[in-house]
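Lab notes, practical 5.
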Amino acid sequence: MRMSITLLFVLLLSPLRAAAEERWYIFSIGGTPVGWVTEETDGLRTRTTVSARLTRLGKSIVMRFEVATTEDAAGALQTLGYETLLSKQPMRLEVRVEGDRVRILTPQERIVDRGPDSLLGPVAVARLTSQRLRAAGDRIEYAVFSPELQRVAKVRRHLVAMSERPPCGSTPANRVEETIQGLPGPRTLWLDANAVMVGDSIAGPFGPMSTCRAPKETALAANGTLPADVYEKTLSTSNVRFADPFAIDRIVVRVRPRDPSQALPDFSSSNQRVVSPGLIEITRPSRTGKPDASVPGPEFLEPNALVESADKEIVRIAKALTTPDSYETAQALTKWTAENLTMDAGIVMAPASELVRDRRATCMGYATLLASLARAAGLPARIVMGYVYYGGIWGGHAWAEMFVAGRWLPFDGAVFAPGIAGAARLSVGASSLADGGGSLTGPLSALFGKVDIETVEYERDGSKTRVETGDRLFEVAGETYVNRGLGLRIKADGWHPERAGSTWPSTLVVAFRRGDTSIELHQRPRYPARPLVNDADAMFTSVDGGTLWVWAARGPDAAGALRTFLTRVERVR
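Output from the prediction step:
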């Protein structure tokens, strides 16, 4: 979810006129209205607010972004205030331009080089657009300070067509294509004769994100729900179902863009090697391996707005778990995070002080809190974002890396098993989060919901498995079910296989039915240990590394049926 959020605010800023005015827009994703945008300007002061509500996995997500700017009479940016609400606790950024420097005052004071160009405010951007984009083919370039990226960014605008009817509204408008340095795709704007936005659109992971000018009452009433399957489109169904994904030591995957014109980022990292374009080898690093050549900078030990390693409660917990051995400390911190946080899809991004207080998070929160605990314990830590294999799919994910014994080692509190995290994960970038994660925006936006991931080869306990092209996740032939990834063949004479294509968020692998009796096979994580809740009439469980297998039977003589059924389960390679 994070990668759509990083686009949301930056791409909704539109040009404004200098005259005092308030405008309202409906904000939509994939054609479904989900919120509103309002823009106010009074002379050289501008305020833009975005409010949206989404529903994900049954949880409501409320997001709010607000930026306020001032600029001088020439249009040069003077101050910028930015506030985001992605959980219960708002996060704020205060910026002041001082000559050739940009001073970020909160949450931690630091200096950003302005570069050779003056930074423009929204009123100046509108004026420049109106003056210079007069005929099809005209182009302009200017610099702004991006609060989401927390750096100076170059913006290019190209007038593509004049007096074109926009997708919303009937008044002809000029179509302008805009690109922002650091973001992967162009944004299309429709501007009236005064360079005021009528509407805009940009590709997003859940469908096009767009705004459309509307009366205030209509915009405020925009509150739709995205289709249930929209999130499924951001996932990549795996061509292999792994029996114990936590135990994979090495994997080779092929990343295929769904749009052949989509460029892939550089996947090289400390434990990833690009074999050929789109073909990546990932290896689980060893605690005794060769030390990394580079040494982490101070930002990987310092607190920031999200990784609040100086918070009193975080420091207390970290001290209680710190041991003389840095690797043992890293394991203890990861285990504590896994056992003390609860997954909550209604939280997008939250600072560590909120996470440790409320103990609820998505994978991004697990990684943020774990990195905070690590820094409080004296271990350099960073957040890594990308994809992880889980329950038959590859999905967007975040985890932490700690610098232990001279190496960056991955640890995962959300997809947890003791020790260094398994290799069934693909990194697209790492960050200290000193910039709020803005440096990850480009690679994440280029991939999330836009690629499919295919396993080519994997290795576990020294045993290498090659996945042949065309191999299927499973096969059902009459009453026989075969899953080579799981090493299972079930000759279910008299039973009808069903729901064999189930994947996350369901734990179901396959079910079988005979009359009023059903038997289900579930694959659940073994860690952290939690009570097994199941309404089955009979149940059998077994363990394979980090995986807990649950056979659940319901119906007449469920126990006897399950005992007989299990004799038909064979192991295959």
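Observations recorded by the TA: The longest strand covers residues 151-164. The chain has nine helices and 35 strands.
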